[in-house]
Amino acid sequence: MKKLNFLLVDDEALVREGLHALLEKEDFVNCITEAGSKKDFENALAGQAYDIVLMDFRMPDANGLQLYQALKKQPYIPKVIVLTGLEGQELIINLLKAGVNGIVYKLDGYRELLHAIKSVIDTGTYFPEKILAVIRQNAQQLGDVPPVQLTFQEQELLRAIAQGFTTKQIASLLKMSESTTETYRIRLIKKVQVSNTAGLLAYAFRNGIL
After folding, report:
1. Percent of the chain surpassing pLDDT 70
2. 90 pLDDT more than 60
3. Is 193 or 34 the better-scoring residue by pLDDT?
4. Which terminus of the chain, N or C, has less C-beta within 10 A?
5. Sheet containing 102-105: which strands, arranged edge to edge?
6. In whole angstroms, what is the distance from residue 40 CA to residue 62 CA?
7. Which of 203, 190, 184, 195 is nearest to 99 (CA)?
8. pLDDT at 61 over 60
């Protein structure tokens, strides 16, 4: 695994310093930059490109959705994992619709965050069971997309994505190359007319595939 650049965005210095101290021990980490405010965040983006942004949702001068929109305008868009202590379903739905790559509840601890990071590196997303439950219960709010006919292979791909399998594992399961697996995922997103993996899972729940 190549070494990655991280940006930690949280207004609590103790949280940032704690995460920094834990992450710098991991062998996949290259460098870690911290941002405690919107201005720090903007300065950090001007300084270098990042592979993964770990971002608190609630900041004193901006929120996670606003900062995420700024990230999407970057030439190189990093993967974004939102860290939050808030569990409101509207918040989660809006984050999913925006297209964040993962959501981790702060109370779940560092081991859960580490699992999320590795999953995002391997598969592009991380949605634990609590988030899948929100998608399942609010599938209609993630886009009213009419059902289309899916092949058996496409349904199997959806089930594998929902179980958090890596691209390599899915490729082995479906007996195809990793590049072909990723191509199938992208084609499936376009086929069911959604914009990201969360929308894809919502589609599957909405149409009884999962």
Report:
1. 95
2. yes
3. 34
4. N
5. 29-35, 4-9, 52-56, 79-84, 102-105
6. 12
7. 195
8. yes
Tokens of 101: 């790559």
Choose the CATH number for 137-206 among 3.40.50.150, 3.30.1130.10, 1.10.10.10, 3.40.50.300. Answer: 1.10.10.10
Taken in order 126, 129, 131, 134, is the CA torsion positive or negative?
positive
Residues listed for the chain: 210
To 5 degrees, how large is the angle CA 92–CA 95–CA 96?
A: 85
Structure tokens given for 136: 């399942």
Q: Hey, where are the domains in the chain?
A: 4-126, 137-206
Higher-confidence position of 118 and 61: 118
- Quote the pLDDT of residue 88: 74
The 3-state secondary structure of the chain reads CCCEEEEEECCCHHHHHHHHHHHCCCCCEEEEEEECCHHHHHHHHHHCCCCEEEEECECCCCEHHHHHHHHCCCCCCCEEEEEECCCCHHHHHHHHHHCCCEEEEHHHHHHHHHHHHHHHHHHCCECCHHHHHHHHHCHHHHCCCCCCCCCHHHHHHHHHHHCCCCHHHHHHHHCCCHHHHHHHHHHHHHHCCCCCHHHHHHHHHHCCCC
| Contact (CB, 8 A) for 33 and 48 | yes
Domain 4-126 has CATH 3.90.550.10: no
pTM as predicted: 0.77
